[in-house]
Amino acid sequence: MKRDEQMKYVALGDSLTVGVGSSFLAPGFVGRFAKFTEQTHQSQVCTNVYAKSGIETGEVLEMIESTDLHSHISRAHLITISAGGNDLIQASKDFVESGETDELTQSVKECYLNMMKIMEILHMLKKECRLPFRIYLLNLYNPLPKIPLADKWVSLFNRHLNSFHNGESVVVADLYSVFKGKQETFLSRDRVHPNDLGYEAIAQTLVALGYPKF
Asked: Would residue 77 show up in a list of annotated catalytic residues for this protein?
C-alpha cells in the first residue's frame, strides 16, 4: 500500500468494540489497533465503528444485515468483530437462577448459528471485492471464572469460532489465552470489561496476527 493511500477499517460488535472499561478519553482496542496499523504501514487509517454496549450475537447479526453498512464493509481492508460475551453473561445468569445446563448449551448453539450467518454476509459482501482484506474475530476470555460451567461455555464457543479461521482472510484473536490468569491485571473495576492494559493487550494481539497482503 502506498503511503498516501488510505486504509479502511470497520469495527463491529459489542461493548469491547465500544471500549467500555477504558479510562476517560483513552481509546479501547479499536483506536489502539488503528494507531499501531498507521505506524506499521505509514498510511492513514479511516475507522468506522458500528457497536453498542450490551448487545448479543443476534443483535450484531441484525446490525450487519443493515444495508447501510454494506458499502463500508465491502470497501474495508480490515474488519474486527467482537461478539458473544453478552450471550455468555446472560446464559450464566439464567444458569445460576435455574441450575439448568440446557440454557448454556442452547446459548452456545444460537451464538454459533448467529456467527455463521454473520460470516456468510461478510463473505458475500467481500466476494466481489478485489481489495485485499482481513477479518479478525475476537474470541472470548472468561470474566466469570467463579461461575460453574462458564469456562466450559467459553471454550466451546471459542472452538466453534476457530472453525472460521483460515489463516488468510479470516483469523481469530486468542483473547482467552491472553487474559487467562491475568484478570486482575487486564480487567476494569466492573470485572467484566478490559481496562487500558487489557485493551492494549487486545490491540497487540491483533497486530501480531498480521495484515492482508497489499
From this structure: no
